[in-house]
Amino acid sequence: MAGSKEIRNKIKSVQNTRKITKAMEMVAASKMKKAQERMRASRPYVSRMLAIARHLAHANPEYRHPFVVKRGEPKNVGLIVITSDKGLCGGLNTNALRLALSKIKSWQAKSVGVQVSVIGNKGLGFMNRLKANVVSHVVGLGDRPHLDKLIGPVKVQLDAYIAGQIDELHLVATRFENTMKQTPVESQILPIADLEGEVEKREYPWDYIYEPDAKTVLEGLLTRYIESVIFQAANENIASEQSARMVAMKAASDNAGTIIDELQLIYNKTRQAAITKEISEIVAGAAAV
Amino acid sequence: MANTIHVDVVSAEESIYSGDAEFVVLPGVMGELGIYPRHTPLITQIKPGVVRIKVPGQAEEQIVYVQGGFLEVQPDVVTVLSDTAIRARDLDEAKALEAKRLAEETLQNRTSKADIAMAEGELAGAVAQLAAIRRLRRRS
What is the extent of the structural domain holding B96? Predict the structure, then answer.
């Protein structure tokens, strides 16, 4: 009867673990829903801004903002990496960081300098261990990120771009495809390539009245556009994080269930063995008398 | 067709207001703007202030507070791209400086020794673990 008490304790402990993972799963599920709504809410802002910026770029071909001008082979690049603050979300951060790392390596092979901005605790820890050149970072965005917190770290990179310290700005973040699938993606933020796209067609040529003037408006719009793209990516990252966590916790709960079943079987077997042994001892004892 | 103009007030974080209006008053940088339907196209920066929207069939005006941003006017649509934070050149500058200072501080406080090869090894380990877990799960 040696193992039965230990097995009972083990079952109890796995059951407790399952309770925790189950609770985390449900918390993640409800947070994911809200995060997805927020992700959608910021879309009209970004698309409207891009449409206006495009029109401005077309209407004012003589003025080229530095954000739009291509600079040829880059000597230095900026990289913004978005990760989550907390772990327990499967391979989400690992995959994003792996992509960032391979990018950094390919740049270093071409002896291109890299300066990194990190959003999220996990990425910051990783980049610190990597001894990467981290020029700015922000952690603790929480479940509901605010643009306010991103302005500073992003401006560090934008200033470096305008000052010519970097020639390109890239972003690595996780794209939310659906609840089961999140893929890390890398995209180029600066110089902005999208502005060359189609403008809204009209039957007659028209232009806006600008107040105070086109240059000021375009400059303000482009800065906000870039910030909102990064903000959108941060939002998307949170939705990805929550759904990845939900899936990971669901798997953990399922695994705990299997372990409990197995242990229960072992427990029943040892109990049965003990009873059989006792009976045979009694019978043997009776036969001896 | 009713003489109205569609008004959208959006920010990077949420859609603040959307609906039709007979008349809209906005705080432009060059002064207050009153927009009626079929206004000529216009783009302007706006100051932090109040947007007043006269909704058809309602005596009271809808009031939306914006923290500055941009305004785009088309003959039938008014779009306000509102900022979510109070923006000013020196405020942004201060935020960037603060971010830089924080980054430098962490750079100085780095103690652990590692390089790309080690980090790569760590990541490869994590990926292998994940793959193993996935395989185990499929088997069970």
Answer: 91-139
What is the CATH number for A148? Answer: 3.40.1380.10
Rounded to two decimals, what is the model's pTM? 0.81
Whole-number Å distance between alpha carbons of A5 and A9:
6
Element holding A151 (H helix, E strand): helix A147-162
Instruction: Indicate if the pLDDT at residue A279 is higher than 90.
Output: yes
Residues in chain B within 8 Å Cβ distance of A124: 106
Domain total in chain A: 2
What is the band of B112 on the pLDDT scale with cuts at 50, 70, 90?
low
Contact B28 A211 (CB under 8 A): yes
Buried b (16+ CB within 10 A) or exposed e, A105-123: eebeeeebebbbbbbbbbb
Q: From the CA of B59, how many Å to the nearest CA of chain A? A: 30
Question: A14 and A263 in contact (C-beta within 8 Å)?
Answer: yes
Contacts of B87 in chain A (CB under 8 A): 151
> Is A44 close to B84, i.e. CB distance below 8 A?
no
Do A32 and A148 belong to one domain?
Answer: yes
Q: Does the structure show a pLDDT above 60 at A199? A: no
Three-class secondary structure of residue A131 per DSSP: coil
Q: Which residue has the higher pLDDT, A49 or A193?
A: A49
Co-location of B108 and B45 in the same domain: no
Tell me which residue range forms the domain holding A265: 4-25+248-281
Q: Residue B39 maps to which CATH number?
A: 2.60.15.10
Partner A contacted by B77 (CB < 8 A): no
Report the residue count for chain B.
140
Read off the DSSP letter of residue B121: H
Chain A to chain B, count of Cβ pairs less than 8 Å apart?
A: 161
Tell whether B79 is within 8 A of chain A (Cβ): yes
A228–B contact, CB cutoff 8 A: yes
Closest residue to A251, CB basis, from B107, B115, B137: B137
Question: Which of B70, B88, B106 is at the close of a domain?
Answer: B88
pLDDT digits (tens, 9 = 90+) for A139-160: 888 888 888 888 888 888 998 9
